[in-house]
Automatic annotation (TrEMBL):
<dbReference type="GO" id="GO:0004497">
    <property type="term" value="F:monooxygenase activity"/>
</dbReference>
<protein>
    <submittedName>
        <fullName>Antibiotic biosynthesis monooxygenase</fullName>
    </submittedName>
</protein>
<dbReference type="Pfam" id="PF03992">
    <property type="entry name" value="ABM"/>
</dbReference>
<dbReference type="InterPro" id="IPR007138">
    <property type="entry name" value="ABM_dom"/>
</dbReference>
<feature type="domain" description="ABM">
    <location>
        <begin position="2"/>
        <end position="71"/>
    </location>
</feature>
<dbReference type="InterPro" id="IPR052936">
    <property type="entry name" value="Jasmonate_Hydroxylase-like"/>
</dbReference>
<keyword id="KW-0560">Oxidoreductase</keyword>
<keyword id="KW-0503">Monooxygenase</keyword>
<dbReference type="InterPro" id="IPR011008">
    <property type="entry name" value="Dimeric_a/b-barrel"/>
</dbReference>
């Protein structure tokens, strides 16, 4: 798995409707890309947004980064939507997990 984390803050003068249209179109386009696994976005109370996308591998994530329509919208983002952003990308992230449902199922079997 290849993980991409996009932290950003929007400009105060953002055209929210235009941004929403572009964001919706980009999510739909990303979901159709080879190697796409998942996408979620979270907004904090202070206005920072964290978007997380998961890809099958680095090549799939880089392919998305070079997709022509996505590249156009990235430029629009820098020009009109974002005050700042940071992109984090990592191959083979170290993953730890816990799932209460699995623990309950194991307890029920005992």
């Amino acid at each position: 798995m290849f993980l991409v984390v996009f932290r950003n803050r929007k400009r105060s003068d953002i055209d929210a409707l235009a941004y929403a249209r572009d964001a919706e179109a980009m999510e739909a386009l990303a979901r159709a890309q080879p190697g796409f696994l998942a996408f979620k976005s979270y907004a904090s109370e202070d206005g920072e947004v964290v978007a997380i996308s998961e890809w099958s591998d680095a090549a799939a994530a880089r392919g998305w980064g070079r997709q022509a329509e996505h590249a156009l919208v990235q430029g629009r983002g820098r020009a009109a939507y974002y005050e700042n952003y940071t992109l984090f990308a990592c191959d083979s992230p170290r993953i730890h997990g816990f799932d209460r449902r699995e623990e309950c199922e194991e307890d029920a079997k005992r």
